[in-house]
Design goal:
The chain is mainly α and 579 residues long. It has 18 helices and ten strands. The strands form five sheets. It has a two-stranded antiparallel ribbon. Strands 2-8 form a two-stranded antiparallel sheet.
Length: 579
């Protein structure tokens, strides 16, 4: 093929995606050397690779994954998310089928890395050394970003499907027919190693900042060295978890060596990777209520995010139904509300305790009221108390009122006046530092089975219990520390609960339950709410109730491979068990 032949942005992923892969991107009409010698084209190709990142909230038919977990219920019964809740999903119909989208993103990164592989900028060397140096730095940075994105997309696939086809370069268009039947799933271990290798390459790139500074606002939403460390940490945490370390697993679905020694090494690797994020010193925890709105500026907690323009679509979709243009959307569950501990002593909330039941939101972990909108709270503009009781402005039997007795507060701008069409900026956070203290805590507890173990001489600078308490003690939360006398097994449950409340509505619970293999007792448990009856001025009777019977089967720990992708390879790609 001649150098001047039109450059089609196509890759090996042609074989595992829908027919729109055969449609050339807008940049396809440019000659290859024109694209990659022009800085604006380079930026366009890389920006296109970012466009396949998950949107986060409301990205599944207007709903989000929290409503398929025990965190929440989607109020609109017609939404696709309910297929998960009733068990009506399979290899032909999966509301969260990300296969094609992730491979599109991978295709773009392959094109970018191959297209920029031989660029030298020698035309500037000797003639304009400043520009020559600038372009070299820019090229190294953008190539590191592309590697990060490829790793990110592979992690999104692996955490859902297990081992997947590893395609790291684009196919020659003429060879596609000959190669298509040979594409098969790679082992889980090799997929994890590929992600880790890409992350290590990005981390080692000096041209990529560990964290973008406040003066580099143009890079907000772009990958950094810290983002690569974070992705490595999360990948290794998942890889060490129960789902991928069961005896007798095929290499495609997990590790074949699941001996105690092998598992301990995986947990230790996960702990070290998590601490590497913390040890950068570039990210610190903010007051909890300031993390999830851009009103707090760039902040210090966020490591990697996706930003959107100024609008009020998300807020309208989740405001209580009694407010002008409020549509309810995601309704937090009683399952989640009950997970927030008592502030005074860290004990569990108990409906059988008459003091708790009479005023169920008083004296609780402060993160509860920063995350979930409860009955009789002052809210919105113009401000009024939320009436979630039976017959209230925001309660049943009003159409589209919350089914659970709660509305969402986290991520929502609580002070918008829709009559004035007020708008706000939103961000979806992929990584923030709070998670990595908990990643470290979990990995240390599982590796050493000793809540207080640490060894500063070999890099274990904190114990599992210390790391957990750092999150609990953040400013504005101030939960009491977990005592050092706690057992390994009990600390495991406290860490899991801490993740549940700290990371609520951030896309973790759905996958945490899978990797811990507790989906049957959590995702498959009854989805509960609360019935509220007004008994007097500012007095109410709260009664827990079942909102929905949920369905979960252990085969759902891994998603089914889309049948269309299996068909394209003539069965070379094998299906996940029992689908």
């Amino acid at each position: 093929m001649k150098l001047k032949k039109i450059f089609f942005i196509l890759s090996a992923i042609l074989i595992v995606t829908s027919c729109d892969y055969l449609e050339p991107d807008s940049l396809s009409l440019k000659y290859k050397e024109d694209v990659y010698q022009n800085l604006s084209y380079i930026d366009q190709v890389l920006t296109s690779a970012y466009s396949n990142l998950p949107a986060g909230y409301n990205d599944i038919d207007g709903s989000w994954i929290a409503s398929a977990s025990d965190e929440a219920e989607e109020v609109d019964a017609s939404k696709k998310i309910h297929h998960f809740n009733i068990g009506n999903w399979n290899e032909f119909n999966n509301p969260d089928d990300v296969w094609a989208n992730c491979y599109k993103g991978i295709r773009k990164t392959c094109d970018f890395l191959e297209g920029t592989d031989t660029i030298s900028w020698y035309a500037y060397k000797g003639n304009n050394e400043v520009e020559y140096t600038r372009r070299k730095v820019l090229l190294k940075r953008t190539r590191a970003e592309a590697k990060f994105l490829q790793a990110f997309y592979y992690f999104e696939l692996v955490k859902r499907y297990g081992g997947v086809p590893l395609i790291t370069k684009k196919l020659n268009l003429d060879d596609n027919g000959a190669i298509i039947g040979n594409i098969a799933r790679e082992s889980f271990a090799n997929c994890v190693q590929h992600i880790v290798n890409l992350c290590d390459s990005v981390i080692a790139c000096p041209e990529l900042s560990v964290a973008w500074s406040a003066t580099e606002d143009g890079y907000a939403g772009r990958a950094s060295g810290g983002a690569a460390m974070a992705l490595k940490s999360r990948t290794l945490l998942y890889a060490a978890s129960d789902l991928y370390n069961q005896p007798g697993l095929s290499s495609v679905f997990g590790y074949t060596d699941v001996s105690d020694d092998a598992r301990k090494l995986r947990w230790e690797s996960a702990a070290k990777a998590a601490y590497a994020v913390i040890a950068t010193g570039k990210y610190t925890m903010q007051p909890y209520n300031l993390i999830f709105t851009l009103g707090s500026g760039r902040g210090t907690e966020v490591i990697f995010e996706r930003r959107s323009g100024s609008d009020n679509v998300f807020d309208k979709a989740n405001y209580p139904i009694g407010f002008e243009k409020g549509a309810t959307g995601t309704c937090p569950s009683q399952n989640l509300v009950d997970a927030y501990e008592m502030k005074a002593d860290g004990s569990k909330f108990d409906w059988n305790n008459p003091i708790h039941a009479a005023n169920p939101y008083a004296g609780r972990d402060p993160r509860l009221l920063m995350t979930i909108l409860t009955n009789n709270e002052l809210f919105g503009l113009p401000a009024r108390k939320v009436e979630i009781w039976q017959g209230g402005l925001d309660g049943l039997p009003r159409q589209k009122a919350t089914k659970t007795g709660y509305y969402l507060k986290k991520w929502v701008n609580t002070a918008l006046d829709f009559s004035l069409n007020n708008t706000t900026f939103h961000q979806w956070i992929y990584f923030r530092i709070g998670e990595f203290h908990l990643n470290y805590a979990e990995a240390m507890n599982e590796a050493f089975k000793n809540p207080t173990y640490k060894n500063t001489s070999i890099g274990y600078m904190r114990s599992a219990i210390e790391a957990t308490n750092i999150v609990r003690s953040r400013f504005g939360v101030g939960m009491p520390g977990i005592p050092a006398t706690i057992s390994y097994e009990d600390l495991r449950q406290r860490i899991r609960n801490e993740r549940r409340v700290e990371l609520a509505f951030e896309g973790h619970r759905w996958f945490d339950a899978r990797r811990w293999m507790i989906g049957s007792t959590t995702l498959g448990s009854d989805l509960r709410g609360v019935n509220i009856v007004k008994t007097g001025d500012n007095t109410f009777l709260y009664t827990p109730t079942v909102v929905e019977k949920r369905v979960y089967d252990t085969k759902m720990n891994l998603y089914p491979i889309p049948q269309s992708e299996i068909n394209k390879t003539g069965g070379s790609i094998i299906q996940n068990p029992n689908w």
